[in-house]
Amino acid sequence: MSSTTHDAHHDHHAPPKGITRWLFTTNHKDLGILYMVFALIMFFVGGAMAMIIRVELFQPGLTLVDPHFFNQMTTMHALVMIFGALMPAFTGLANWLIPVQIGAPDMALPRINNWAFWLLPAGFTLLLLTLFLPGGAPAGGWTMYPPLILQLGDAFPFLIFAVHILGISSIMGSINIAATILNMRAPGMTLMKMPLFVWAWLITAFLIVAVMPVLAGAVTMLLTDQYFGTSFFNAAGGGDPVMFQHIFWFFGHPEVYILILPAFGIVSAIIPTFARKPLFGYSSMVYATASIAFLSFIVWGHHMFSVGMPLAGQLFFMYATMLVAVPTGVKIFNWMATMWQGSMTFETPMLFAIAFVILFTIGGLSGVMLALAPVDLQYHDTYFVVAHFHYVLVSGAIFSVFAAVYFWLPKWTGNMYDERLGKWHFWLSTISVNVLFFPQHFLGLAGMPRRIPDYALQFAEFNMISSIGGFVFGLSQLIFLWVIIKCVRGGEKASDQVWEGAKGLEWTLPSPAPYHTFERPPVVK
Amino acid sequence: MSQANDVYYVPHESRWPVYGIPGMVLLAGGFSIYLNGGSWGMPMMVIGAVITLLMTVMWFRDVVNESLAHKYNAQVDRSFRQGMAWFIFSEVMFFGAFFGALFYARVFSIPWLGGEDPATSRFLWDSVVLSWPTAGPGFLDLEFQPMGAWALPTINTLILLTSGVTLTIAHHAMKENHRSKVIWGLAATVLLGAIFMSVQSYEYVHAYQDLNLRMDTGIYGSTFFMLTGFHGVHVTIGAIALFVILIRVIKGHFTADDHFGFEAAAWYWHFVDVVWLGLYVFVYLI
After folding, report:
1. Residues within 8 A of A (CB atoms), B 42-61 only
2. Over A404-460, what HEC string results?
3. Which of A13, A41, A163, A416 has the greatest number of CB atoms lying within 10 Å of its CB?
4. Distances in Å between the alpha carbon of A276 and those of A109, A270, A272, A345?
5. What is the tens place of the pLDDT at every residue in A168-193?
6. Which residues pair with B255 in a beta bridge?
7. Is the pTM of this model over 0.90?
8. ipTM of this complex prediction, to 2 decimal places
9. Which residues of A are tagged catalytic?
């Protein structure tokens, strides 16, 4: 193998054939595709779990599955969607896009990149295997709170090690992304000239490297508490189950920004393109992203207001959390100002980006409501929380991934996607996601608890409406799958620039982009 | 070759990362089965560990050979440096979780359980008096002695600090092309690391046999063994890394201005050194 490096200059430009291309690849585009295909598969796996949840909740009473399996579905849905769908989707986008956006030939550490990707199937082999083990899959919620999680059956160590492996994967992926951004930029591509997607990922990579090891430490303590007699989360031994919540949410809160900062970067690329105006307030966007990342480390307690916390702690976490709304507001107003008086057109990526801005703002505002400690005591663990984080994660983060796929698919495949089908996908998704999640606000305010397979009769109508929205949303994603397959197989040829208003290095490359790009650095003015 | 920066270097594909994946699955799955009481867990785990180890060795071998063939330019060197720095940062955060647990127990949970928070103590263990070190309110009749800071841990601190000095001497000698001094400095560092680990092992035996201090001795035993144990693992990894570097120095792999392998291992060693200082202060002294 190593002998091919010197003489292989001509086949340097063509990918190797067969399965080994994908297994051994160090090419950032191949790995980006692998990440995104993996994310798409996991999106449907996690989506199937969500469908089971919504079927069960369609009517009151235990209708389809037994409560223990229902709990497995809520837990696994979260783990699969967070670690299997969203994070790999963003990492895949980073892999494909960052080198071409900064004028680099590849990632800084291509073999680490390969390893980071292939750790994902390894981790999910262990995690999904738990569905078939005695005692079933994890069912105590994705947050893994002790002592409940310690009652898990044979799945327990598999869960812990799956989290370890997925953690190693995302840490390695992020180290690579950070080193790429800091070290591989083309001459002239100064930090403040980088596309915002690159900036968002630099900050996200920092967050991942900072907090994934903390999660690894937290689950390691769960493991030793279970099997090696330690007392970290056992009050009898002088520990405290609440301590786990502190350590977990020190990871968990930055984690939710890990899931949204790349989305900010995507939307900041798409809105200027279709508004045909430069992004309003570029540097304020950078500072806002950095401020959000900083604040994410000092707000974890707002997940724990109802657990019993000193008043000073409640006040601190409440005010710090409300501060997050300031830089986030800066971003939302910047996107609006970018669209102001622009010559806008509404292709599918733009539609998803605009829906992102509106629906993410709804999720952000319910977040400010949840930040208020006295109010949160009412909302905690109700469907209001479920509505809140699905607004930011589904109609926020996932919509941004849809937008990104439609936006860059012509660059990846060389073909335009089917605009008509894309619009169907957009409208069906956007209407159904609101039918799905908006009624859950009312359910939560009326007191319906999360993670319970049955409910009181007064919640029946809203649950049925929500489930219908869920089924439509789920089915609409098959259109998305079809659009992607259709676009990969052929279609109207895309130009190099693809979109009239598109700016940036990736749009100077041919469509589809060749296997290797920027082997000689471009010069950025 | 040592091109100027106008051409990038992209390493060729590698099969080692993928070959390591079944190793990771077997290692983690085997350990899980072992913990669940399955008899084939241990063999699976051993096979997984061997595969993972082989993968690591082969991967590093490729990198060393490419480095010796002067395929890496200055940019690759910077990528390696940044990658290593970020990796050490992630390790710091990993230890942060366990230090966080220690501080939380000492500052919050022990005083709260011991009566400072009336609600907690009244409903759980009424009028119990707790002070650090403790095995917790549920194990008040458990007799154990905490690990004192004097004698062995202090000697170990000096050993580890000295190893940092010998390593720095080796590094300066490396920059001055003083090869025999590099070898002696590195050998001394590895030796001091081995002595440190021997003393730690003796301390563990002493804790279990004489002090009745065990991993299940409440929160004190938990934090003590978790922090010192993970530190010990990292010292071992660092010592192995330095030993490999020592062999590479003897084989003449490094030059005065091109020895990042040496520096990466040295950074790692200084990192475990600094973690130890934190341990010494917060686990042993205070």
Report:
1. 59
2. HHHHHHHHHHCECCCHHHHHHHHHHHHHHHHHHHHHHHHHHHCCCECCCCCCCHHHH
3. A163
4. 35, 10, 6, 9
5. 999 999 999 999 999 999 999 999 99
6. B258
7. yes
8. 0.94
9. 77, 106, 142, 169-170, 253, 255, 257, 268, 302-303, 328, 331, 450
